[in-house]
Amino acid sequence: MKDLFGRALLDYQNGHYTEDLITSTNISEEDDLPLPYLFRDFKDMPKLEKNALQLAKGSVLDVGCGAGNHSLYLQKKGFTVKAIDISKGAIEVSKLRGVTHAEVKNILDEKDTFDTVLLLMNGTGIFQELSQVSKYLTHLKSLLKPNGQILIDSSDIKYMYEDDDGGFWMDAHANYYGELDYYLSYKGEEETPMKWLYLDFDTLKLACDTVGLTCELVLDGSHFDYLARLG
Ligand SMILES: C[S@@+](CC[C@H](N)C(=O)[O-])C[C@H]1O[C@@H](n2cnc3c(N)ncnc32)[C@H](O)[C@@H]1O
């Protein structure tokens, strides 16, 4: 991984913002990912994220913290927060912005336990593929203190396969429709392609059942997105 995401965050943090990240997927055209959005404060967060932050309790793990927006908000509210990300640049930025406990770490290497585990901005993306969901959920479950909770958001992206006359062009023999190949570029450089998973709520709930986690729909968002609480 070249960590172009981290490089972009560092540029923005250091006052060198000249262009946005460009993303695309195997089923969608190029789109800008504005860097200021990755530095949003509470008032600019979608309502699902605001809701998740309001539900936080006890010690918190912010998984895939990016520039540390959610960690910073909770830290200021007095929560003890640990922020982790596989991006070195993201962790550097989180520290520069004041996140006290930020570490470069893959979620699968985390061993501590928490009252709240946060995975926000399509939190299921980190699972990459449907076949890996049980592995990640089982691990996340092992990080929970008694009565702990996982707050995670995602979207049902079936709408992306809808054609003009309301039909769906999904290939019935292909993998799960939320499994995407994700491409990122920044300042003319291309990141190694990644897999990124969008999970509809029913599929997430089914996966939770199989690993012994409860799964409650907290809130529907404005565009096929939702926030779920697992425990
Ligand atoms: C869509 S960004 C979300 C950033 C941040 N949560 C936000 O809302 O602004 C996803 C983040 O997850 C990180 N990530 C991806 N896979 C990860 C893993 N296995 N463990 C920890 N972090 C991961 C990426 O580096 C990236 O910073």
From TrEMBL:
SUPFAM superfamilies: S-adenosyl-L-methionine-dependent methyltransferases (SSF53335). GO terms for biological process: methylation. The keyword tRNA-binding does not apply. Keywords: Methyltransferase, Transferase. It comes from the Bacteria. Pfam families: Methyltransf_23. One of its GO terms (molecular function) is polyprenyldihydroxybenzoate methyltransferase activity. InterPro entries: SAM-dependent_MTases_sf (IPR029063). This is SAM-dependent methyltransferase.
